[in-house]
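Hey, sorry to bother you again with one of my protein questions. There's a protein on my desk that I can't quite get my head around. No rush at all, and the record is pasted right below.
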Amino acid sequence: MIVSTAIGLLALVIGLIIGWPVLVLLSIIFTIVQIVMLTAKTAVERNDVKVAERLAAKKARHERD
C-alpha cells in the first residue's frame, strides 16, 4: 500500500509538472483513498491486538476458576 501511495504522489507531481489537470485530480483522489486505507488498516490491526489481549485475559480468568 505504501508503494501505491508513493506512485500516486509521483503521478501527482508529474501531472503538475506537465500541466495535466485530469492526472492531477485523479492522483489526488487516489492518494487520499490510499491514505484512508492505510489509516483503516492500522486501526484494524490495533483493534485486533486489543481484542486478542481481552480474550487472553478472559481465558486466563476462566482457567483459574
Notes: The helical segments are 2-18, 21-64. Residues 2-64 form one domain.
